[in-house]
Amino acid sequence: MAGLDKRVGSYEEALAGLSDNMTILAGGFGLCGIPENLINEIRRRGVRGLTVVSNNCGVDGFGLGVLLEDRQIRKMIASYVGENALFEQQLLSGELEVELTPQGTLAERMRAGGAGIPAFYTATGYGTPVAEGKEAREFNGRHYILETAIIGDFAIVKGWKADHFGNVVYRHTAQNFNPLAAMAGRVTVVEVEEIVEPGALEPSQVHTPGIYVDRIIQGRFEKRIEKRTLRG
Q: What class of enzyme is it (predicted)?
């Protein structure tokens, strides 16, 4: 059983093997459920030329936004520019290559990568700039475009609980892109709030089975709120 234990003791060990010009899949939506400590370790390592796949790119000074600050990201594949002014600035200046992808398509591209499906047809984006350069076909009187799957060299994921074997449970909306990213990484690293003993998780509670996970680390999280809205 010891050989199945996927726990690591440091963030340096968690991202061992990460190097320049790799593709990284990052879970999270806005600042919800982001692997904030793994992002900080990427920043610390100073790797460059990265292609990052995530719904958005954090905010100025937090989340994936810190990698933009250090000019570590070469290309961003995302569905939303979000609240990040630096993202917008680097996009408009041509410093950052950006591939905007409809949100559902982005999710399915990662799911397909994890499921071994190389490409799929979707009606989303047909007749728009999203479809430029892509194969189009008609099925049952409706037009579709071909989208390719995404696989990352690394996937960085934020979970709530995990056991020693890498079975992961997410809490509420942190299920956003995290389970999909976890499926599609050649090396999948998950940071969690709590690591529990084997057998402590009911099989029906597990969202990401340990077969997808290579390394687990327990961390402490700031959990910032992207935009606070109050109503009296």
A: transferase
Q: What would the mean pLDDT of 86-115 be, rounded to a whole number? A: 94
Element at 110 (helix H, strand E): helix 103-115
- Sequence length of the chain is 232
Summarize pLDDT for 12-36 with one digit per residue, the tens: 999 999 999 999 999 999 888 899 9
Map out the domains of the chain as residue ranges: 2-9+20-218
Q: What angle do CA 81, 114, 182 make, to 5 degrees?
A: 65
**Distance between CA atoms of residues 99 and 84, nearest Å:** 16
Contact 231, 205 (CB under 8 A): no
Calculate what percentage of the chain has a pLDDT beyond 70: 94
Q: Give me the CATH code for the 2-9+20-218 domain, please.
A: 3.40.1080.10
* pLDDT over 90 (residue 85): no
Question: Any idea which residue has 């490409």 for tokens?
Answer: 119
Cα separation, 210 vs 200, whole angstroms: 14
3-state secondary structure of 109: helix
- pTM over the 0.85 mark: yes
Long-range contacts of 106-110 (CB under 8 A, 24+ apart): 106/53, 106/55, 106/77, 106/78, 106/79, 106/150, 106/177, 107/177, 107/180, 108/147, 109/147, 109/148, 109/149, 109/150, 110/25, 110/53, 110/149, 110/150, 110/177, 110/180, 110/181, 110/183, 110/184
